Amino acid sequence: MKPKTTKNRLIKYLPLIMAITFITVILLPFLSHAQVPDPSGTHTGTIKDVPAAKPGAPTLNEVADAVGHNRIGINILWTLLTGFLVMFMQVGFAMVETGFTRAKNVAHTMAMNMFIYILGITGFWICGFAFMFGGIGSVSALGGTPGLTHEFTIHLLGKDFGIIGAAGYFLNSKVYDVGVFTLFLFQMVFMDTAATIPTGAMAERWKFKSFAVYGLFISMFVYPIFGNWVWGGGWLASLGTNFGLGHGHVDFAGSSVVHLVGAVAGLAGILVLGPRIGKYNKDGSANTIPGHNIPMAVVGTLILAFGWFGFNPGSTLAGTDLRIAVIATNTMIASASGGLFATLYMWIKYKKPEVGVMGNGLLGGLVAITAPCAFVNAASAFLIGGIAGLLVVLSTFYIDQKLKIDDPVGAIAVHGVCGYWGVLALGLFADGQYGDGWNGVKGNVTGWFYGDPKQFLAEFIGGTTCIIFVFAVMYIFFKVCDKIIGIRSLEADEIKGLDEDEIGLKGYDNEDHPPFEHEKITNLV
User: Which member of 3, 276, 505, 509 has the greatest number of CB atoms within 10 A?
Assistant: First the structure.
């Protein structure tokens, strides 16, 4: 009898090895999803209908189940960890906004940043998640998301236009699944970021009761509805399949969905709220009201930059998507160029680098790269971030001095102007190397400079729709809210500081800052 050699064994099991390879590499992405909710995660990523192998050999079912389960496990772990990073950005927002405002409002500003997290979770759990993702269907990277199959659509011009999701309220038993819960956590912290932006734009004069109503309204309705149109399979995502406009409105991690939504909501609120007492003189000239703690603001900025490595790479929803390396590096490069160009502008024009502008330039670069980070190369990322840094400086002065809009932390410039620039930049610089199948369109996402001007048009439509929709709804909301309960704190409270009368305690028990009348207020450069 001829002895069995290693070579003979390999030849004998070669068909089995080839079959396993084919299943795990080719078929697995299409087959590895749960058909019913899987709250324990036991069956998520497994394959049940693979033919058994020869007796005595490892079965294809066992191998495929192990590989599929591990693949989805990696994706879920990755998505949760990056979600935790995004949640940590709440600390950064709290420190930036508090540092750039006055000591007498420390507790009030911090309370808004904490309570928006509490309100946001509640509102998103009640119906926000359902409105946003109730009709998204199966997210294969998370093993399938059963139950999210109900999208309200309208039929016009022979096309279907998704308007709002209608499944997943209260994360009920029909969506009691590990993939769905992972998606909820990750998307909730994104919503929280958008909802937080107005707390800086409207700081130092916003009545806390009105703020609480706002927190529920934006988390339950405004953010989820626009989010559905872009990320939930709604009509903006379908501009490609319905009208041939590239891949539809593409926003990888939220330049429009998160940042532009938050900034436009803040703008609407400021216009109803009005400027802080002492911000503008009778002749219309603007005064600078300095922040009380620049170190706090700087630390907060760096925390936000750190959290952005969850924000952008995490939006793959897949640790097995190796494009995360490009996304993370592009994010870092754009943040640097944003800070660099903003700093150089101030240094050259005003002879001082100005640390506050440096930080906002860095954040502006991050906001701008958030939409195109997965679709552009490093040179484009640097250019996108650099332009954003300049836009932050120019728009901040224009908004403050020309438009007379009092935004204590520069949120409209950072998140609004740069958010809009970010989606337009995607339509220009996407290099056609990534995004095959995005929004149901074959081929990679390609911008105008690489041959597809229609993608730019889709980005323009999406960004402009965001501005019109969010501003109209939020302006009406703030007007109605002002009529019913009032949105601005009492004048005496604002002069004294909002901490004790609005929150019940001082932010600094032993602080020795003088009252408003004697605080340093200087003319802008």
Answer: 276
Q: In this structure, what token pair is assigned to residue 357? A: 């502008």
CATH number for 266: 1.10.3430.10
CB within 8 Å of 143: residues ≥ 6 apart: 32, 33, 34, 38, 41, 44, 45, 72, 75, 76, 178, 179
The secondary structure of residue 501, as a DSSP letter, is I
Which spans in 100-146 are helix H? 106-123, 129-133
CB 327 within 8 A of CB 316: yes
How high is the pLDDT of residue 32?
Answer: 39
Residue 11 lies in a domain: no
Task: Kindly report the number of other CB atoms within 10 A of residue 516's CB atom.
Answer: 17
Residue in the block written with tokens 């220009």: 428
The three-state (H, E, C) secondary structure of 397-436, written as one string: HHHHHHCCCCCCCCHHHHHHHHHHHHHHHHHHHCECCCCC
Number of domains in the chain: 1
Largest CA distance in the chain: 106
Is the pLDDT at 14 greater than 80? The verdict is no
First to last CA, the chain: 95
Instruction: Report how far apart, in Å, the C-alpha atoms of 425 and of each of 106, 361, 387, 465 are.
Output: 37, 17, 10, 17
User: Could you report the per-residue pLDDT of 127-142, keeping only the tens digit for each?
Assistant: 999 999 999 999 999 9
- Identify the burial level of 479 via C-beta atoms within 10 angstroms of its C-beta, where 0-12 means exposed, 13-18 middle and 19 or more buried: middle
Structural domain of 350: 70-503
Q: Sign of the CA dihedral 410, 469, 369, 397? A: negative
